[in-house]
Amino acid sequence: MLVLAGPGCATKTPSVAMDAPVAEAAAGWVRTELYFSIGDWTETALSTEGESRWAEFLDREVTSRFPDGLSVIDVYGQWRSPKPASPILRERSRLLVVLHPATKEAADKVEAIRTAWKQLTGEESVLRVSQPAEVAF
Length: 137
Fold this sequence. Notes:
This protein has 137 residues and is of the alpha+beta class.
């Protein structure tokens, strides 16, 4: 029993049994998450104007690049700027989740979305998290 509880077991990811067609369809996909701060973007993040501006951004910059589908989740987060003596900022945010092929073209589209948001809002950053994904439709 002690062998099973050793450190080697804790680091292994359990494998998911998939039949060949599913495994083939899942190969080469990425799940990308982008975290957008909307807390300071408008006077009130919940305002009609703020929601309209977000919808316009989503249509113009995101949906135009990933028309096959995406998810947006309202989240609340906190972070600290790398600038010295920066306070912890707590704010409303939007989490965008996009599943896309693992290609340079898709990665470039994601970067274009991040750049567009920073230009539009003056935000310092848009957190990006990307990881391989097993996808089947």
